[in-house]
Specification:
- It is built from 2 helices and 15 strands.
- It has 172 residues and is mostly beta strands.
- The strands form 3 sheets. Strands 2, 5, 6, 7, 8, 9, 12 and 13 form an 8-stranded antiparallel β-sheet that branches.
- The N terminus is likely disordered.
Length: 172
């Protein structure tokens, strides 16, 4: 198995640990850098399902140096509900059978299977328990573990600085 690790720091670009590796994303070779676009921004709106309450998303985009989005990680919550949904959008060139695993500080939390693919990427999502959320709130980094081919595993590490502060700002 060939393991590659991509380190991501908010607002900065870092090289892959193996410079000869080029990640093929959205049909183009994006090279060896990834970056985070913002520090866990929060977006809230009136709940469109029933017009009652508020639905909020706290998310993070991981893009290449050319600005193409590679991954999107979004925690979604609605006022009055205990359910927390984690939605991960991955590139179309992802190896679907392996799913995508997320971990916090190296401790595996869960693996989601890809549910559907659109022109912008493939979605994997699942519910996050309160104990899993607590791990994210106190953690230092959220890692996405995925494959681009059989027996080829990649790891993107996303800093969780400001996540707990942003989560608290939602207020429910």
């Amino acid at each position: 198995m060939r393991d590659e690790e991509i380190k991501v720091t908010c607002g900065q670009v870092y090289s892959l640990t193996t410079l000869s590796f080029a990640l093929v994303v959205l049909g183009t070779v994006v090279g060896n850098t990834q970056e985070v676009q913002a520090e866990w921004p929060v977006s809230c709106r009136a709940n469109s399902l029933d017009g009652e309450g508020t639905a909020c998303t706290i998310g993070q985009n991981i893009s290449n140096a050319q600005g193409q989005m590679l991954f999107r990680v979004a925690f979604q919550v609605q006022s009055g509900r205990d359910d927390i949904l984690l939605n991960i959008v991955a590139p179309l060139t992802i190896y679907l059978p392996d799913g995508i695993t997320y971990s916090v500080d190296g401790d595996v939390i869960d693996t989601f299977q890809y549910e559907r693919c659109f022109e912008y990427g493939c979605n994997a999502f699942g519910l996050v328990s309160q104990s899993q959320l607590q791990s994210v709130l106190v953690g230092g980094s959220l890692d996405l573990i995925f494959s681009t081919a059989p027996e080829t595993q990649q790891n993107i590490s996303i800093p969780l600085e400001r996540f707990s502060e942003q989560w608290a700002s939602i207020g429910f």
